[in-house]
Amino acid sequence: MPEFVTITEWRDYAALLEEDLDNHKHKIQVLKECLHDVIAQACYHKDALLDSCGIIAYADAMRLLANYGMIEIISDEGHRVIAKLKG
User: Which of 11, 20, 58, 81 has an alpha carbon within 20 to 30 A of 65's alpha carbon?
Assistant: First the structure.
């Protein structure tokens, strides 16, 4: 952390950090939405459900999306996750 001489320098630095944080939050949101779209396309199954079909990466991604409240898990048994889209 840099040394500051004046309160104005401190405020300017804090403003830069806040802007950087907002930028990272936006990037994370874009990545979550992209993952949601990939899982919705790759795992879409009959009756408008999502099915990981035993693929570990899909199951893990579906659990992550559920933690963010973007999908709702109906069944979670090992590598097979069944979920539904929210909204």
Answer: 20
Using a cut of 0.85, tell me whether the model's pTM lies above it: no
Residue positions counted in the chain: 87
Q: How many domains does the chain have?
A: 1
The pLDDT confidence band at residue 51, using thresholds 50, 70 and 90, is very high
- Residues with Cβ < 8 Å from 50, sequence gap 6 or more? 39, 40, 43, 44, 62, 71, 81, 82, 83, 84, 85
The residue whose two tokens read 């804090």 is: 14
Alpha-carbon torsion (39, 42, 43, 49), positive or negative: positive
| Residues 6+ away with beta carbon under 8 Å from 62 | 39, 43, 50, 52, 71, 73, 81, 83
Structure tokens at 77: 């048994």
Is 2 a domain residue? no
